[in-house]
Design brief:
about 35% helix, single chain, alpha/beta, eight-stranded parallel β-sheet
């Protein structure tokens, strides 16, 4: 097998702000793995929140790709995933790029879409639609973006909160798009008591659930909110790997996985099974990513209750295409081989 990688800089359509800061350009590291005339694509979208940067991904990828070349068999994804753990215990986005590229490659070699390799069918309307995220801005701008997303037929809107205007924002958006399903994400910004108070107020606006209301480094705070909130609670920053699931099972309703946190599709499937075993619903989210990685996550849709896979939709332009989106639903059934990621 031949392997290579390159870093791409991807401007966003509009600046994207959450409680931790603002992003105007996303850097992704694209991985290509070639075997028997086929190329598998994957990508890393590193986050400082999880200890990764573009530089750390570029630094560790040669060793991870050496594992791929040493094993020499793209079908041996479990073996490669285990050996990557011996190279580094961390660096999940870098591992995700490799793992995704392998799944894409194997799908192409077998002329099968990845969802079939996962034992799933893409038929039917039971796959959850993706939410479309509205980043923090002045209230009027957030309302306008919500209107635009609703006009583009996205049925679910995720509102980034963590300001002194949180209830004002939700109230204004609810009035502007009364039919939309609203979810909110505080990205660890609230105190426990503040979170409970805001959850009670948000309940009156028909919010579906609240994502990561308090800091992930305070599990007692998450339980405090979970036990008192009238709204379901989703754990994001508190849920990184399959091993985290038992610790969050009694303090949230929804486990939110991301391929960039788990280290790829292989451990993501393990996390889904662990969450189901503990009675949790499951959502798959994303970073701001190109379709070289988002396309892979869309194949998990038959296994999910909720989806937040709009990372590539927030880009000004994406060098890769994936499954087309219609009314918030990824048409994964149109993917013939691999993840569906193709260079435009």
């Amino acid at each position: 097998m031949n392997t290579r990688f390159e870093t791409v800089s991807l401007p966003l359509d509009v600046p994207f702000e959450i409680a931790r800061g603002t992003t105007e350009t996303a850097e992704n590291v694209i991985v290509e793995i070639e075997h028997d005339g086929e190329i598998g694509y994957g990508a890393a979208a590193p986050s400082r929140r999880y200890g990764e940067t573009t530089a750390t991904v570029e630094g560790i990828l040669p060793e991870l790709l050496d594992v791929v070349e040493t094993v020499g068999d793209p079908h041996a994804r479990r073996t490669i995933a285990d050996r990557m753990k011996t190279v580094t215990r961390e660096n999940p986005a870098a591992k995700a790029a490799v793992d995704i590229a392998l799944w894409d490659l194997v799908g192409k070699l077998l002329s099968q879409p990845v969802y079939r390799l996962l034992g799933c069918s893409a038929a039917g309307d039971d796959r959850p639609p993706t939410s479309f995220t509205i980043g923090i801005d002045d209230t009027e701008t957030m309302v306008e973006r919500a209107r635009e997303a609703a006009a583009a037929e996205y049925p679910v809107l995720k509102l980034k909160l963590g300001t002194d205007r949180d209830i004002e924002i939700v109230s204004a958006i609810r009035k502007a798009v009364p039919e939309a399903i609203l979810r909110v994400d505080a990205n660890e910004a609230w105190t426990p008591k503040e979170a409970v108070e805001k959850c009670r107020k948000l309940d009156s606006y028909g919010v579906e659930f609240v994502e990561q209301p308090v800091g992930a480094d305070d599990p007692k705070a998450l339980r405090y909110v979970y036990e008192r909130s009238p709204l379901p609670i989703a754990a994001d920053e508190s849920c990184r790997t399959p091993a985290d699931v038992p610790a969050i099972a009694d303090r949230c309703d929804i486990a939110n996985l991301k391929l960039m946190k788990t280290g790829g599709l292989t451990p993501a499937v393990e996390l889904i099974h662990a969450a189901r075993a503990h009675g949790l619903d499951v959502m798959c989210g994303c970073m701001i990513e190109t379709n070289a990685s988002i396309a892979a996550a869309t194949h998990l849709l038959p296994l999910l209750d909720y989806a937040d896979l709009d990372g590539s939709l927030l880009l000004e332009s994406d060098p890769y295409a994936g499954a087309p989106v219609s009314a918030g639903r990824f048409e994964v059934e149109n993917v013939d081989r691999g993840t569906g990621a193709t260079l435009r």
